[in-house]
């Protein structure tokens, strides 16, 4: 059976329209800190690290000190001046705080609940260059290029890697709360921009060796601090955009469309009231409206209400709907993580 060009074109257009009609919205959700014990260790001292030629301990201190959650500071950092004073009085070297017993003794003297110490295990970097063959067409004709210019280009490269050992000591018990080795790498080639930039999120800029090592230590500091604090994540959720019931009036379809427009505009309050009214009019029988209502509740952080709406939507379906399945799997996990994060935030 032959398919005409007109039929192929029609199929492509239909597929394009179908793929483009599903709208997604961004949702914000609270997540707990990975290192849960830090919830009760909110007064912290950060010692100078061994072999720290790129200021890793200072970067960690700065990021922890300025970290806020809902506009409130999560940690209190003992000033480096107070820490250095105690170290001097105890006739110690900063590097001696790598020992748990010493860190515990100093931590108690300055009133810290935890002491962060560590070392740069390795920091290597090199920048170089090489010549690469290149050519440029000087004359084009209908038959193609008839004259070429051949030349060499200079390509610049940088490779760097940093490995850091970081520990957190519980001042009260002298035990290790956290201990890990964090590694970051960077690789860039000006003549191969698609070759990859590892560890720094990608960039077209070729960093010098010193710049790369500096950014890698900043990346390690960010990763480490992220593990200690509750934080928000953002993800996208797909909306259903067509009521599936027979007998729905034009007015009801319009109200549903308007509610979707309000969602896209970020007006969740307005969308919520319109969808609630529409759900009541339809006697709670539309899984699409129930699902979208659940998405609106989730976007507002009303997770228990969202779960109730998603459960209703699921009860109304005969065959599985992927968006509803994803929502039901997601919502319990989000509720659990939100409660854990709240316990961490409120812990003393």
> Number of helical segments?
10
Strand-residue proportion:
25-35%
Structural class based on helices, strands and sheet pairing: alpha/beta
The strands making up the biggest β-sheet line up spatially as: 5-2-6-7-8
So what's the CATH class of the largest domain?
A: Alpha Beta
Shape field:
flat
C-alpha Rg, in Å?
29 Å
Q: What is the total tally of β strands?
A: 9
Ordered list of secondary-structure elements with their pairings:
Elements (H helix, E strand, L loop, with lengths): L4 H17 L2 E8 L11 E4 L9 H11 L1 E2 L2 E2 L2 E2 L2 H10 L10 H11 L3 E28 L2 E27 L5 E14 L19 H20 L2 E8 L11 H15 L3 H14 L5 H13 L3 H14 L5 H25 L2
Parallel strand pairs: 2-5, 2-6
Antiparallel strand pairs: 1-9, 3-4, 6-7, 7-8
Structure description:
It is a single chain. By secondary structure, this protein is of the alpha/beta class. 43% of the residues lie in helices and 27% in strands. The chain is built from ten helices and nine strands. Strand 3 (68-69) and strand 4 (72-73) form a beta hairpin. Helix 2 packs across helix 5 (209-228) and helix 7 runs antiparallel to helix 8. The longest helix is centred in the C-terminal third of the chain and has 25 residues, at 322-346. Mean pLDDT is 88; it is low at 1-20 and 195-203.
């Amino acid at each position: 059976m032959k398919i005409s060009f007109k039929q192929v074109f029609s199929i492509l257009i239909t597929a394009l329209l179908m793929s483009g009609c599903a709208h997604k919205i961004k949702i914000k959700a609270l997540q707990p800190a990975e290192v849960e014990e830090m919830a009760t260790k909110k007064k912290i001292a950060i010692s100078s690290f061994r072999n720290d030629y790129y200021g890793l301990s200072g970067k960690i201190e700065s990021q922890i000190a300025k970290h806020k959650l809902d506009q409130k500071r999560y940690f209190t950092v003992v000033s480096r001046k107070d820490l250095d004073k105690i170290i001097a009085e105890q006739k110690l070297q900063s590097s001696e705080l790598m020992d748990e017993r010493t860190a515990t003794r100093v931590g108690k003297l300055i009133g810290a609940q935890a002491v962060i110490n560590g070392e740069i295990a390795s920091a290597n970097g090199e920048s170089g260059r090489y010549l690469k063959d290149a050519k440029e067409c000087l004359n084009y004709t209908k038959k193609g290029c008839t004259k070429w210019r051949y030349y060499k280009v200079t390509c610049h490269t940088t490779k760097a890697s940093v490995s850091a050992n970081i520990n957190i000591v519980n001042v009260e018990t002298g035990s290790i709360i956290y201990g890990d080795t964090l590694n970051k790498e960077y690789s860039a080639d000006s003549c191969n921009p698609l070759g990859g930039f590892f560890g720094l999120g990608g960039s077209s800029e070729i960093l010098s060796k010193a710049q790369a090592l500096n950014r890698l230590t900043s990346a390690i500091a960010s990763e480490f601090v992220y593990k200690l604090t509750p934080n928000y994540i953002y993800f996208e959720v797909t909306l259903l955009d067509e009521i599936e019931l027979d007998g729905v009036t034009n007015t009801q379809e319009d109200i549903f469309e308007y509610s979707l427009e309000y969602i896209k505009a970020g007006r969740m309050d307005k969308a919520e009231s319109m969808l609630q009214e529409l759900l009541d009019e339809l006697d709670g029988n539309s899984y699409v409206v129930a699902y979208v209502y659940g998405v609106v509740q989730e976007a507002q952080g009303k997770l228990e209400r969202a779960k109730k709406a998603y459960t209703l939507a699921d009860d109304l379906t005969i065959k599985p709907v992927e968006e509803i399945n994803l929502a039901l799997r997601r919502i319990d996990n989000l509720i659990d993580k939100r409660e854990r994060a709240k316990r961490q935030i409120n812990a003393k």
